[in-house]
Amino acid sequence: MPRTSKLPLAAIDAWLGAHPGWARDGEALSRTFKFADFANALGFAVKVGCAAEKRDHHPDLELGWGKARVVWSTHDAGGITQLDLDLAEATEKLVD
After folding, report:
1. Three-class SS string for 35-94?
2. Count of CB atoms within 10 A of residue 58's CB?
């Protein structure tokens, strides 16, 4: 049983319009953040991981030199939920 329900596309599109940089990637939200170097990208990824642990909801993270890609989706709901939008907003606040 999903913790939250999958959102309608219109709600996701409205959210995306207010949050530049994020994109709908199939049944997920994704964004790549740019950093000065690997250490800053890694620090950001750790902060995202800590925020995810607090909410018991975990993104897919891809880490590289000077970049970190974050992908939020609620697998048991089959797509994007309000929890994903909330954590995507929280992710934005973690960028130094």
Report:
1. CCCHHHHHHHHHHHHHHHHHHCCCCEEEEECCEEEEEECEHHHCECEHHHHHHHHHHHCC
2. 14
Structure tokens at 10: 């219109």
Question: What tokens does 32 get?
Answer: 């790549």
Starting at the edge strand found earlier in the chain, the sheet holding 29-34 runs 23-24, 29-34, 67-72, 60-64
Quote the pTM value.
Answer: 0.93
Token pair 């929280």 in the structure block, residue:
90
Question: What domain range includes position 29?
Answer: 9-92
| Domain CATH code at residue 42 | 3.30.1360.20
- What tens digit of pLDDT does each residue of 65-88 get? 999 999 999 999 999 999 999 999
The answer to whether the beta carbons of residues 62 and 21 sit under 8 Å apart is no
Residues 4-44 pLDDT 10s: 799 999 999 999 999 999 999 999 999 999 999 999 999 99
